[in-house]
Design a protein that fits this description.
Blueprint: H1 9-73, H2 76-79, H3 83-96, E1 100-106, E2 112-115, H4 127-135, E3 139-140, E4 144-146, E5 151-161, E6 167-175, H5 176-185, E7 193-197, E8 203-206, H6 210-213, H7 220-228, E9 233-237, E10 243-251, E11 256-263, H8 264-267, H9 269-315, H10 328-388, E12 392-396, E13 402-405, H11 407-413, H12 417-420, H13 434-447, E14 450-458, E15 464-476, E16 479-488, H14 490-504, H15 514-531, E17 534-542, H16 545-552, H17 554-569, E18 577-582, E19 585-593, H18 597-616, E20 619-621, E21 624-626, E22 630-637, H19 644-660, E23 666-668, H20 671-690, E24 696-705, E25 710-721, E26 725-727, H21 729-737, H22 741-760, E27 770-775, H23 777-780, H24 785-796, E28 803-808, H25 816-829, E29 832-838, H26 845-848, E30 855-858, H27 860-864, H28 870-885, E31 889-892, H29 898-907, E32 911-912, H30 923-932, E33 938-940, E34 946-950, E35 953-957
Parallel strand pairs: 22-23, 25-27, 27-28, 28-29, 29-30, 30-31, 31-32
Antiparallel strand pairs: 1-2, 1-6, 3-5, 4-5, 5-6, 7-8, 7-11, 9-10, 10-11, 12-13, 12-16, 14-15, 15-16, 17-19, 17-22, 18-19, 20-21, 24-25, 24-32, 25-26, 33-34, 34-35
Helix pairs in contact: 1-9, 9-10, 16-17, 21-22, 22-24, 24-25
Length: about 950
C-alpha cells in the first residue's frame, strides 16, 4: 500500500482516462497517415498530368515550326538551289509566324548563305547546323543569343537536299519569349511554376518572371532529378527559396524537359484542413472522457475525504467512530483504526516517562558535537582555500626551502606532495643565480618587505616557463617566512608576441609589413652613412596578377603570393629584408653592399636577376600549373640625405619603367626618369594655364575629292609654348587625356571650329567647305556633350551641316547604347560623323551598322606602306569595299606619294588628305590656299608644295619661289 499512497484517487482516475484515450490517438494517427498517403498520390498524379500537358503543348509548338520548316525545305526553290527565291519564301513565312525571329540557310562548310534577321556573317550557333548536314536528321538547339540585340532564341534545324545532291541546313530561330508567352497563356493550377529546360539544363522559357530566369542554369538538384528520372517527381527549392514538389516530362524528341512545380504550402493546404478537423474532433472526445472521469473521481473523493477527516480527528485524540461511506474497503479500514487507537493509548503512557531523560542526554551530546564541528570546519576552510587557489601559493623559510605549497603550485612544477618535501627554490628558479636568490629570500624575510616581478621557473621535466611573482615577508608566532604567489604568464607572453606580429607582419605571407619595412629602411640608411656602404631598395610587382584573381579566384592568388614570399626569402641574405607592401607588391631591402657605386649596382643586379629567375619557375597551385613573372624597380642609397619617401618614389618609378619595357624585367632608377616626370608635370601646369587663351589654336589640313577639288579641311590643335615653341598634339594631348583638361580643350576646339565655319560662310569660295575636328572618347561620353555642341552652334551661327566630328573606335568598347543615342542626336542637328583611324581598334561590324555615320577614315598606318606591304593594301581595299557597301564616304589620311593616291583612286576611295596635298597650316594661310586651289583639277600644299590631280593620276607641280 505504501507505494500507492502518494497519489490521490483523482490522480489515479485521471491516469486511467488518459490510458483509455491511447487507442483513440492510435486510430486517429493511422487514419491521418492513410489520408496523407492518398492525398499525396492524388497530388503527384496532378503534377505529372500537368507536366505532360505542358510538354505536349510545347512539343506541338515546336512541331508546328518544324512542319513550316519542312514545307520550306521541300519547296521548289530549295530543291533547285534558288537561294534568292528561298529567302523570299522564308521572309514570307517569318511574317506569317511572328514567333520565328530568324531563318538561316547554312551550307556544308558552316557558311550562312542568307539570314532573314541579321547579316549572315553575324549568325551564331552554327555547330548544330553542321551536325544536321552531316547526319541528315532534324535537331533542336539549346538557348543562344541572336545578334544584334541579343534576343534569346532556340532553333529548329533540318536538312535540305538540293537536286544536285548538295545538303544544306535550314535553321528557324524560335523566340524564347514566345515559348514563355505560351506557358503564361495556359491556366496553371496550384499556383504552380512551369519551366522549360534545355538539354544542358538551361532555362529556355518560364511562365513566371521569364526575363529574370531565361538563360540561367537550373539548380543542380533539379538537373540531377531530371537526368535520373526518379519517377518524374521530386522535391526542390526555387530561386526564391520556396519549397516545391515538381514533376518533369520530356518534350518529344527535342531533348527538352518541362518541369512543373507547385509550392508545398499549396499542396498541403487540403491535408492541413483535414488534419485540423480530426485533431479538433479527437481533442473534444478526449476532453469529454476526461470530464466524465473527473466527475466520477469527485464523487469518490468526497467519500474518501470524510474518512480522511475522521482519521485526522482520530489522530488528535477524538474517539468518535468512523463515518459510514458505503464503500466496503473504506468501512473495514475505519473499524481497524478504532482497534488500533486503544492499543496506542496504552503504549503512549509507557513511553512518556522515559522521554524526559532521553532529551537531557541528547542536548549534552549535541553541544559537544557542535564545538568539535566548528574547529574542524575552520581547519577544512583553510585547506580548501589553499587547494582551490588558482595562483601557485608557496611558503619559504630563510634557507629558501619549501615549507608549504598549494596544489596549483605543485601542478605548475610537476611535483606531487611527497616529492615536494625538502625542495629548495634553487630547484625551480631558472632566471636568478642560486646564491643570489637565496640571499634575496633571506633579506625579504628579515625586512618584511614585498615585491612583484617576473622570472622563469623550471619544471620537473626541465622545461622552462615565465611566471609573475608576488611575495611578502611575514612573522607569525615568533617565526618568519616568505609568503609568495606565482602566476603562469605563458599565455600573456604569447598574446603579446601575437600583437607584435599583427602590428609588424603581414598576415598572409608572414613577411614584415609596410610599418616594419620603414623602420628597417631608416636603420639601413643610418648604417650606410656610418659604414660608407651602399643599400638597395627593390620594388617588385607581380605581372598580370589581376588576371589570375579574375579567372582562377582569390584563393589561388593568395597561394601564389605565399609561394612567392617563400622564394623571395631564399634569394636574399640573412641581414636583408623581404616585406610585403600590400596587394601583389613586395619590397626587398638589401644591406651591406660595397661602397663603390658600380660594385654596389652589380651586386644588387645579381640578386635581382636571381629573383627574376626564381620567381619565373612554374607554380603548382592546387594541382594547377601557373606561370608568373614580376617587374622590378631598383634604387641605390648611400647616405642619409635621401629620405624614405624619396627612395620609395624612386623604386616605384623604376618599377613602372620595367612594366613599360614589357614586364618580366628590372630597371634601375635613373635621375633622368625623375627629371622627365618633373618636366611632364611642369608641361601639364603650363598647359592648364594656356587653356582658354590664344596659345592654343587650330591648324587646317586640306581634304580633296577624286576630282582634285578642295572639299574641306581637318582642324588640328596646336600649342604655342612660351619656351618650347610650337608643340604638337602627340606631346600634350596625352597629358590632357590623363586629367580633366581634355574637356576644356575639346570645348575650345569646337568653339574655334564653329567660329571659323561662321567666317567661311561669308566667303563665297569657302562657304561649301566642310571642317572636321577630332572628339576624344572622354569628351564624347560627357552626359551634356550633345547639348554643348547645340549651344556652340547656336551661339556661333555656324552651319551644322558643314561641321564634321571625327570619333575614335574606342567609343565602341563600352556604353554602346549611350553612344548611339548621342550620335543620333548630333545627326538630327545636321552634324555629320566620321569614324577616325578605322581598322586599328574595335571595328565591330555588328555595332558599326547601328551607328549613324557618314564617313570612315583609313588610318595613316595602312596608307604609309600601301605600295610595299600587301597586307596594308588588302586592309585599305577591304575598308573601301566595306564603306561602299554600307553607303559611307571613305577618306584616307597620310597620303604623301602620288602612287599611294593612284592606288586609292583605283580602289574607289572618295577623298584624301596628307602632305601630298598640303600640310596643316594656320587659318589665314588656309584661306589663301583655298582661294588659289578652287579649280576642279588642282590642289596645293601652300608653302610646302602643290600637286595636280587629273583622271586619277597625280602630277607634281614645281615648288613656288
Amino acid at each position: 500500500m505504501d507505494r500507492w499512497s502518494p497519489r490521490g484517487i483523482k490522480a489515479w482516475l485521471l491516469l486511467l482516462s488518459l490510458f483509455s484515450a491511447i487507442p483513440i490517438f492510435l486510430f486517429s494517427g493511422f487514419t491521418l497517415y492513410r489520408l496523407a498517403e492518398s492525398e499525396e498520390e492524388a497530388l503527384v498524379a496532378t503534377l505529372v498530368e500537368h507536366a505532360r500537358a505542358m510538354a505536349s503543348l510545347v512539343a506541338e509548338r515546336v512541331e508546328a515550326v518544324g512542319m513550316a520548316a519542312q514545307v520550306l525545305a521541300r519547296s521548289d526553290a530549295a530543291v533547285h538551289g534558288d537561294i534568292r527565291a528561298l529567302r523570299d519564301h522564308a521572309v514570307r513565312l517569318q511574317d506569317s509566324m511572328p514567333e520565328i525571329r530568324d531563318i538561316v540557310l547554312i551550307d556544308g562548310t558552316g557558311r550562312a548563305l542568307f539570314s532573314t534577321a541579321v547579316s549572315p556573317a553575324d549568325v551564331v550557333a552554327l555547330d548544330i547546323a553542321r551536325d544536321v548536314i552531316r547526319t541528315g536528321r532534324r535537331a533542336v538547339s539549346d538557348l543562344y543569343a541572336l545578334p544584334p540585340g541579343g534576343v534569346r532564341v532556340v532553333s529548329v534545324n533540318l536538312p535540305v537536299t538540293a537536286a544536285n545532291g548538295a545538303v544544306f541546313c535550314l535553321s528557324l530561330a524560335l523566340s524564347a519569349e514566345s515559348l514563355s508567352h505560351l506557358l503564361e497563356a495556359e491556366a496553371v493550377p496550384l499556383d504552380g511554376t512551369v519551366a522549360l529546360l534545355g538539354a544542358t539544363g538551361t532555362i529556355l522559357a518560364r511562365n513566371r518572371a521569364s526575363p529574370r530566369f531565361v538563360g540561367a542554369k537550373t539548380s543542380s538538384d533539379v538537373l540531377s532529378a531530371v537526368s535520373k528520372g526518379r519517377g518524374g517527381v521530386f522535391d526542390s527549392v526555387t530561386y526564391d527559396g520556396v519549397r516545391v514538389k515538381a514533376a518533369s516530362a520530356p518534350v518529344g524528341a527535342t531533348g527538352w524537359t518541362v518541369v512543373f512545380g507547385a509550392p508545398m504550402a499549396v499542396l498541403n493546404a487540403k491535408l492541413d484542413r483535414t488534419l485540423w478537423t480530426l485533431s479538433i474532433g479527437g481533442a473534444l472526445l478526449m476532453l469529454s472522457g476526461m470530464l466524465a472521469s473527473l466527475w466520477i473521481a469527485g464523487r469518490l473523493a468526497g467519500r474518501v475525504a470524510r474518512v480522511a477527516d475522521a482519521s485526522a480527528a482520530f489522530g488528535d485524540g477524538d474517539a468518535a467512530p468512523m463515518p459510514h461511506t458505503g464503500i466496503r474497503e473504506l468501512d473495514a479500514g475505519g473499524a481497524a483504526l478504532g482497534e488500533g487507537r486503544a492499543r496506542e493509548e496504552r503504549v503512549q503512557a509507557e513511553l512518556t516517562e522515559s522521554r524526559s531523560m532521553e532529551a537531557m542526554l541528547a542536548r549534552a551530546v549535541e553541544d559537544l558535537r557542535r564545538s568539535k564541528a566548528e574547529v574542524e570546519e575552520q581547519s577544512e576552510r583553510s585547506k580548501a582555500l589553499l587547494k582551490v587557489a588558482s595562483d601557485g601559493i608557496h611558503i619559504l623559510d630563510h634557507d629558501g626551502r619549501l615549507r608549504e605549497a598549494s596544489e596549483s603550485f605543485l601542478r605548475m612544477l610537476g611535483y606531487d606532495a611527497d616529492e615536494a618535501a625538502g625542495l629548495s627554490i634553487r630547484d625551480w628558479e631558472a632566471f636568478f643565480a642560486p646564491d643570489r636568490i637565496r640571499e634575496w629570500v633571506a633579506r625579504m624575510i628579515e625586512e618584511g618587505s614585498s615585491a612583484v616581478f617576473e622570472t622563469r621557473f623550471r619544471r620537473r621535466d626541465g622545461s622552462v616557463f615565465p611566471v609573475e611573482i608576488s611575495c611578502r615577508g611575514v612573522s607569525l608566532n615568533g617565526a618568519s617566512f616568505l609568503y609568495a604567489a606565482a602566476r603562469d604568464i605563458t599565455e600573456r607572453k604569447a598574446a603579446q608576441a601575437k600583437i607584435e606580429e599583427l602590428a609588424f607582419f603581414d598576415s598572409l605571407t608572414r613577411l614584415p609589413n609596410w610599418r616594419l619595412l620603414l623602420e628597417r629602411l631608416s636603420q639601413a640608411r643610418a648604417i650606410c652613412q656610418r659604414t660608407r656602404s651602399h643599400g638597395a631598395l627593390c620594388f617588385i610587382d607581380v605581372d598580370n596578377f589581376k588576371t589570375l584573381n579574375d579567372t582562377r579566384g582569390h584563393r589561388l592568388g593568395d597561394l601564389l603570393l605565399g609561394e612567392m614570399a617563400g622564394r623571395l626569402k631564399g634569394c636574399v641574405g640573412e641581414g636583408d629584408t623581404v616585406a610585403r607592401s600590400g596587394g601583389d607588391e613586395f619590397v626587398v631591402l638589401l644591406e651591406n653592399l660595397p661602397g663603390d657605386p658600380a660594385e654596389a649596382a652589380l651586386a644588387a643586379e645579381q640578386v635581382v636577376e636571381k629573383i627574376l629567375q626564381v620567381l619565373a619557375v612554374p607554380y603548382h597551385l592546387e594541382s594547377q600549373t601557373h606561370y608568373s613573372t614580376v617587374s622590378i624597380g631598383v634604387t641605390l642609397f648611400h647616405t642619409g640625405e635621401v629620405s624614405n619617401d624619396d627612395l620609395l618614389k624612386q623604386a616605384d618609378l623604376a618599377m613602372y619603367q620595367a612594366k613599360a619595357a614589357g614586364r618580366n624585367t628590372r630597371r634601375f632608377f635613373d635621375p633622368a626618369m625623375q627629371a622627365d616626370l618633373a618636366a611632364q608635370s611642369g608641361l601639364e601646369t603650363d598647359l592648364r594655364r594656356s587653356v582658354g587663351g590664344d596659345r592654343l589654336f587650330l591648324h587646317y589640313q586640306p581634304q580633296i575629292d577624286r576630282a582634285g577639288r578642295l572639299v574641306g579641311a581637318e582642324g588640328l590643335l596646336r600649342w604655342s609654348h612660351p619656351d618650347r615653341g610650337l608643340v604638337l598634339p602627340g606631346v600634350f594631348i596625352p597629358l590632357a587625356e590623363s586629367s580633366d583638361l581634355i574637356l576644356s580643350l575639346g570645348r575650345q576646339v569646337l568653339e574655334e571650329a564653329c567660329a571659323t565655319l561662321a567666317r567661311w560662310n561669308d566667303d563665297p569660295e569657302m562657304r561649301d567647305l566642310v571642317l572636321a575636328v577630332n572628339v576624344s572618347a572622354r569628351q564624347f561620353r560627357h552626359p551634356h556633350f550633345a547639348d554643348d555642341v547645340r549651344a556652340i552652334l547656336r551661339s556661333s551661327g555656324a552651319d551644322p551641316t558643314r561641321l564634321k566630328l571625327e570619333l575614335t573606335e574606342s567609343l565602341l568598347l563600352q556604353e554602346v547604347e549611350d553612344c548611339v543615342r548621342k550620335m543620333v542626336a548630333l545627326e538630327r542637328l545636321g552634324v555629320s560623323l566620321s569614324l577616325d583611324d578605322f581598322g586599328t581598334g574595335y571595328s565591330s561590324l555588328a555595332y558599326l551598322k547601328r551607328l549613324p555615320l557618314s564617313q570612315i577614315k583609313i588610318d595613316r598606318s595602312f596608307v604609309r606602306d600601301i605600295l610595299t606591304d600587301s597586307n596594308d593594301a588588302t586592309i585599305a581595299r577591304t575598308v573601301i569595299v566595306l564603306g561602299k557597301s554600307m553607303g559611307l564616304d571613305v577618306i584616307a589620311e597620310g597620303v604623301e606619294e602620288p602612287g599611294q593616291w593612284d592606288f586609292l583612286l583605283r580602289e574607289g576611295c572618295d577623298k584624301a588628305q596628307g602632305f601630298l596635298f598640303g600640310r596643316p597650316m594656320p587659318a589665314a594661310d588656309f584661306v589663301r590656299f583655298a582661294h588659289r586651289h578652287t579649280a576642279p583639277a588642282a590642289v596645293g600644299a601652300g608653302e610646302e608644295g602643290a600637286v595636280m590631280v587629273a583622271e586619277g593620276a597625280v602630277a607634281a607641280i614645281s615648288r613656288p619661289r
